[in-house]
Write a structure and sequence with these properties.
Elements: H1 6-13, H2 42-77, H3 85-121, H4 136-141, H5 149-157
């Protein structure tokens, strides 16, 4: 098989022997994989793109729904006349919950759109911290991943 993976190419031309230091985008149509992993097939790339696009559409709908719920809660809150403290507290908690859901959906949408951009640029599957391949299995399980397992673990320990 004459075709090399981006990781294998980078390992052959990288500095030292500390492992494949992939710092550049994969060749067009070829995404980074860890040593020993099969290269991404066109069907797998298409599946990842479809999943990300479906997630984008779902999140956009979720954001609209949350914003509509927030608007309804704001409209219904009125001046609070006649509400006891429990009613006011419940309305505030409900409104804050909807705002948190909308914020979370916006953040996930941003991450999903970035993943689509990396897929288009050929850098999908490269760790944004160390530049090494994230791993095909991780990308298939969590398509918005931007860090390899090692860098993610370091980040979580901070």
């Amino acid at each position: 098989m004459a075709k090399k993976t981006a990781a294998a190419t980078a390992g052959a031309h990288g500095k030292g022997s500390a492992g494949p230091a992939v710092k550049t985008a994969a060749a067009p149509g070829e995404l980074a994989v860890r040593p020993g992993e099969d290269p991404w097939t066109p069907a797998e790339v298409a599946e990842a793109r479809t999943e990300l696009m479906e997630e984008t559409a779902r999140l956009r709908l979720e954001i609209v729904s949350a914003e509509n719920a927030i608007a309804g809660l704001m409209r219904d809150s009125g001046d609070g006349a006649g509400d006891d403290e429990a009613d006011t507290g419940t309305k505030n908690i409900t409104r804050e919950h909807e705002m948190a859901l909308a914020s979370n959906a916006r953040e996930m949408l941003h991450q999903t759109e970035r993943a689509l951009g990396r897929l288009d640029a050929g850098t999908y599957g490269l760790c944004e911290n160390c530049g090494n391949p994230i791993g095909k299995a991780r990308m298939q399980a969590f398509p918005r991943a931007t860090l390899c397992v090692e860098c993610k673990q370091k980040q979580e320990r901070r």
